[in-house]
């Protein structure tokens, strides 16, 4: 049936694309992953997201949904009877959205600069510090909201787990390439354990790329991704 | 009762603050508007929003909610039996959120540059063009989603009306100070009519400041707002 067909347009190392795919896995929705060409934008992408021309795009029957956290919310609201991704309490939802926005507008831009590299060492140092500070803040959020459970969302993966966890592949690349510890067993013990539980989850484990594979493909992808990631 | 007390921290000309206030008016929620000092940040603001230190902040009993569109969603979800602000269909909600994010990340940054002024005329020209293009796009969105009705959300003011309409005061200042037409009866006929209906609505009319009052207070506020607006 046309309306039940789901496609995700994207490239495999993009954390934003991984968000949509984890959410679909949580809801047990079958979907087709349509790999975008590297270094150019497909006709389907340009037609589907003419405003931003960015991945991920989710096509659900005749409906097109863009922007990763909006896609995650759509998936949660459309398949509402499957495991819940956002909490149900309005205040918990607001807090969750606040930190989701923080991750997108404060943490990920710095992670992107570090991943792509920067010729000025001072810039690298400054951005790495933002990353450390952000993870220290998020450790605190995790301790409060997980309340001794495995995830930000409790015993199951929720919105904030997806929002942050989608980038674990690049966290590991950042650690390895810069010889640093972003998730530290002593400084961020909650998130350190969380990152393992998250990566091991059935909805996630096929999607977070192996560090070596990412580094190998990294340089090629990273140069091309500058123009196409959303 | 403590938990039912609502306060909004902000300054009156901030479109982001106006968003929260319109949403509360739509839900007929009584609230106290706490005017922030100009040029400094109150202890209450710094304590309430230590991450971004920005207005608006909504305090609801012992709960603190930050970031204007997150506040609007919280208000819609907490007072869920009053008139609905977001549409109920998941796809309509996704589209609404998409354009809300577009307004915040594409349109308003350009409106801000124009409102604050820029010494380089080329920058002013470029930013004005972004504003024209954005309103042309939003005219199209309006025509499709209002479907002959008064607002983006139908017969009643909804999320997208609030997201865009909160800035009508600055649209008018921009028009007057730069001798241009942003909302044009011929080029954007739907939005031109919409802007009048929106400003006349009971939930809005006390909140969109008069153009003359904004221009008068503008220079003073605008210089100070650079650091405090969210």
TrEMBL record, chains A, B:
- EC number of the protein: 2.5.1.18
Keyword field: Detoxification, Transferase
* Pfam families hit by this protein: GST_C, GST_N
Residue ranges of the TM segments: none
Q: Give the matching SUPFAM superfamilies.
A: GST C-terminal domain-like, Thioredoxin-like
Q: Which GO biological-process labels does this protein carry?
A: glutathione metabolic process; toxin catabolic process
PROSITE patterns (UniProt xref): GST_CTER, GST_NTER
Q: What range(s) does the GST N-terminal domain occupy?
A: 4-83
Q: Which GO terms describe its cellular component?
A: cytoplasm
Keyword Acyltransferase assigned: no
Superkingdom in the source lineage: Eukaryota
Limits of the GST C-terminal domain: 89-221
GO MF entry, a single one? glutathione transferase activity
- Note the CDD domains from the entry: GST_C_Tau, GST_N_Tau
Instruction: List the catalytic activities from the record.
Output: RX + glutathione = an S-substituted glutathione + a halide anion + H(+)
Q: Which family does it belong to?
A: Belongs to the GST superfamily. Tau family.
Protein name per UniProt:
glutathione transferase
């Amino acid at each position: 049936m046309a309306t039940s067909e789901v496609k995700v347009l994207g490239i495999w190392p993009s954390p934003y694309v991984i968000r949509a795919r984890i959410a679909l896995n949580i809801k047990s929705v079958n979907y087709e992953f349509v790999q975008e060409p590297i270094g150019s934008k497909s006709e389907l992408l340009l037609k589907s997201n003419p405003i931003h021309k960015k991945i991920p795009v989710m096509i659900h029957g005749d409906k097109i949904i863009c922007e990763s956290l909006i896609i995650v919310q759509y998936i949660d609201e459309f398949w509402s009877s499957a495991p819940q991704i956002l909490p149900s309490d309005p205040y918990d939802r607001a807090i969750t959205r606040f930190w989701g926005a923080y991750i997108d507008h404060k943490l990920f831009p710095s992670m992107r600069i570090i991943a792509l590299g920067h010729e000025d060492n001072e810039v690298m140092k400054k951005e790495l510090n933002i990353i450390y500070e952000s993870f220290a803040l998020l450790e605190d959020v995790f301790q409060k909201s997980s309340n001794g459970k495995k995830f930000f969302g409790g015993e199951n993966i929720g919105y904030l787990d997806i929002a942050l966890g989608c980038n674990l592949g690049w966290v590991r690349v950042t650690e390895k390439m810069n010889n640093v510890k972003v998730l530290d067993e002593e400084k961020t013990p909650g998130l350190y354990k969380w990152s393992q539980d998250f990566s091991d989850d059935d909805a996630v484990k096929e999607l977070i790329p192996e560090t070596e594979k990412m580094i190998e493909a990294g340089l090629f992808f990273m140069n091309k991704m500058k123009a196409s990631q959303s």
